[in-house]
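Review session, final week

We close the course with one last complete record, chosen because it touches almost every idea we covered. It is Hemerythrin domain-containing protein, a protein from Planosporangium thailandense with 223 residues. Go through it on your own first, then we will talk.
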Amino acid sequence: MTATTPEQVDTRDMLVIHTALRREYRLAPALVRTVAPRDTTRACDVSEHLEFLNGMLHHHHSGEDRLLWPKLLERVPAEVAPTVELMEQQHHGIHDAMEQVNAAMARWREHATTADRDQLADSLDRLNARLTEHLAAEEEHILPLAARSLTPAEWGQLGEEGMAGVPKNQRALVFGMLMYEGDPQVIAEMLAHAPRLLRFVLPTLARRAYGRYARRVHGTPTP
């Protein structure tokens, strides 16, 4: 976990997001492999889940590309330039892996053959490996620099734009996904600036939304 001092920005909300992404992508290959051959209905349901995850991940990385890397390069160029270059290379690698997943998924959801299912699962294994490597590097190298180089308002903009990019009808689900294994203290701080009613209502709505979603996708109230 990223240590902070009174002069530093608290970047632990990024860890909450990373935890959710790690969990969902770790589960994805096995989820695909459980689908019976020719079960196109189930293949479509799982494909919609994968598209949802890929959308979350793409939006998350787009925010970093626009709002995080340029500020770090401006303020600590000598220290951060090689790491930002690595982050950008990893983003490109993850994007390529996501494209492979999308291509395999398009074939699988149409006929749900065993060969297409296995190819999709293998593509997800490769994507998960790239993502796991990237998130670990980001937490080790980028978050400490961001904590001391950005202002609270600048860091907050990253989170605000991230949530603003989520369709309103999916926000409770996304927050429930973050809450599931997220640090309760950090979750409370993420809600601290929300309207008072939302602070009380959203946790319950989010927990229920994610429970229903997990039941439909994974077959259990929690994955």
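Two points worth writing down before the exam:
Residues 1-6 have pLDDT under 50 and may be disordered.
Residues 114-149 form the longest helix (36 residues).
Good luck, everyone.
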